[in-house]
Design goal:
Layout lengths: L1 E2 L14 E6 L2 H18 L14 E9 L12 E10 L24 E9 L15 H18 L3 E6 L1 H10 L4 E2 L4 E3 L2 E9 H12 L3 H11 L3 H6 L12
Parallel strand pairs: 1-5, 5-6
Antiparallel strand pairs: 2-3, 3-4, 4-5, 6-9, 7-9, 8-9
Helix pairs in contact: 2-5, 4-5
Length: about 240
């Protein structure tokens, strides 16, 4: 997977005017893949056509920004597709795309597994501040919040992804309990580790932070569509997809 490095503050709550939508129309998916290819070209990723692979078993999410001067949700709002993510389910043999580069890793039965193929945002939306002083890391949290909700609805319990050493440090700071599952190898021209992420453990880690941080409470609230009061009452030791009532 290629996740662009975050710039600026990492911990900021998701804010308007960005929002995420599940893309179902072929035209919209094609537009998002085009954005991914533009980003790949600017970053020098050698993806070998992988950005157009696995579409038949993928879920696509587009990150839309309302252009300056337009009101979010208004009748005349002008949207711009600034990034998104692609999530891939196992094939008929129970294999994920990352096992092509790391054939020795075992993902188990595969029923609850999914692979984050790409999560990317245009460069001008990385590290950029909006009128409220929030950095574009809000784009990252908005996308991952949509990813979390989709996983809860789809019975996905573990995510697989490739992580560079730099991003590994970022995720550790964010409290994500990534588990390295194989050796460092080149993926799209970047050295990466294959990692798995338990959604249950991640939820517990984020709720623990939310108990101490207003910003994390906003992040968890947005991801789970729950009120801060509900998040504050949640037991971080009893967290799983769908565990918060």
């Amino acid at each position: 997977m290629a996740i662009l490095e975050l710039e600026g503050d990492l911990v900021v709550a998701p804010v308007e005017p960005v929002r995420v939508e599940r893309l179902l129309a072929c035209e919209d998916v094609g537009m998002l893949v085009g954005v991914f290819e533009e980003i790949a070209a600017s970053e020098g990723w050698r993806h070998g056509g992988e950005l157009r692979a696995h579409s038949e078993r993928s879920a696509y999410f587009g990150l839309w920004a309302v252009r300056k001067g337009f009101r979010a949700g208004g009748a005349n709002a002008a949207k711009e597709l600034v990034g998104g993510l692609q999530l891939v389910r196992p094939d008929d043999a129970g294999m994920l795309p990352c096992q092509k580069l790391w054939p020795e890793i075992d993902i188990g039965s595969g029923a609850g597994a999914a692979y984050v193929a790409v999560l990317a945002v245009r460069r001008e939306w990385r590290g950029k501040k909006d009128g409220k002083g929030n950095t574009a890391a809000a784009c990252f949290w908005t996308l991952t919040g949509a990813l979390w909700r989709h996983c809860m609805d789809s019975g996905i319990t573990h995510l697989w992804l490739e992580v560079t050493p730099t991003m590994m440090r970022c995720y550790r700071l964010l409290g994500w309990p990534l588990e390295v599952r194989g050796p460092l190898r080149s993926h799209w021209g970047e050295d990466c580790y294959p990692c798995s992420l338990s959604l249950r453990e991640t939820a517990g880690a984020l709720v623990e932070k939310a108990l101490r941080s207003r910003t994390y409470r906003q992040i968890v609230e947005t991801a789970l569509n729950k009120s801060p009061a509900t998040v504050q009452k949640a037991n971080p030791q009893d967290m799983s997809p769908g565990a918060i009532p």
